[in-house]
Amino acid sequence: MQKTVVKYVKGLSETASAFEKRNHKKYGGLNHICRQIEYDVKHGVTEKEVVRMLRKVHDDSSFSELRKGNGSMQRLEEIESRFIKPRIVF
Q1: Which domain of life is it from (predicted)?
Q2: What is the pTM of this model?
């Protein structure tokens, strides 16, 4: 699951080959990534682990280079919006 999220957040490199571009177009979209995460949840990963991993990518210093990429934070927030439920506080 972490590998899937990191690959999506990282995005496609500028020097990608035609094969990589074609595969990214086919398998690299938000819906496909979310389906892969949902498949992992269905097969044993808890939702807490998904949230913990997304927060780790968002906050941990080991992923700082990943977050510097062009548009990477936006892609990460798109995934978070699908899996992290907002808390309503009154």
Answers
A1: Archaea
A2: 0.82
